[in-house]
Amino acid sequence: QVVELISSAIGDLVQGIYYENSKSSEENCLTDDISISTWKEQVFLSHSALLAKSCQAAMELAKHSAEIQDMAFQYGKHMSMSHKLHSDLQPFVKESSSDTMAFSLNSAPAVFHQEFLGREAWIKQIRELQEAIKAGKGVTSAVDLCRCHGSRALAALERFPPSEARAALANIVYAVTRFP
């Protein structure tokens, strides 16, 4: 039973991380159009399932009743959700205005803001910021850094003997360092 719980928690974690990564890599996707209930589901998979099921498994190992095991699961789930919300809130509730902290556009405060503001106004705000970034030197600097790391990757590949595998790895570098 414990092995099944931990295995399913790892499966949930992998599914949650896969979902986060697949959504963030989609082209033309500034942010997910998610509701707070969808946010909760995603956070459960990627953050809470492991703690919740570990707490439940500990009670199983201690031979507690199913009711106690469920309470341990609920504790782990809600403790982890609180921790994630606390983390998401930090960039917005810090006392010092000089502390600029990075935050996800899919954090709880951003998702609530999107719900209250409306999707169209939310996208307009993000597009205005995107245009400001494009107008600055950040994009060209990031492209230069990308190409620098690509050159270093190719230099490291040169240490290997020529082969189809080496050529394929070099092609990956060429693909990720090519910009319009």
What does this structure look like?
- InterPro entries: Isoprenoid_synthase_dom_sf.
- One of its GO terms (molecular function) is prenyltransferase activity.
- This is DLP1 synthase.
- The protein is flat and about 60 Å long.
- The protein has a domain at 1-92 and 103-108.
- Helix content is 76%, strand content 0%.
- It is mainly α and 180 residues long.
- It is built from 7 helices and no strands.
Break the fold down into its secondary structure elements and pairings:
Blueprint: H1 2-24, H2 36-61, H3 66-93, H4 108-117, H5 119-135, H6 138-157, H7 164-176
Helix pairs in contact: 1-2, 2-3, 4-5, 6-7
GO biological process, one term: isoprenoid biosynthetic process
Organism: Sagittarius serpentarius (Secretary bird)
GO molecular function: prenyltransferase activity
Descriptive key words:
single chain, 180 residues, mainly alpha, flat
Strand percentage = under 5%
What radius of gyration results from the CA coordinates?
22 Å
Total strand segments:
0
Outline the biggest β-sheet. none
Contiguous helical run count: 7
N-to-C CA distance? 54 Å
Structural category: mainly alpha
Helicity range of the residues?
over 70%
Q: Could you say which overall geometry the principal axes of the C-alpha atoms support?
A: flat
Low-confidence stretches: none
What is the N-to-C order of secondary-structure elements (H for helix, E for strand)?
Answer: HHHHHHH
Q: Name the average pLDDT.
A: 86
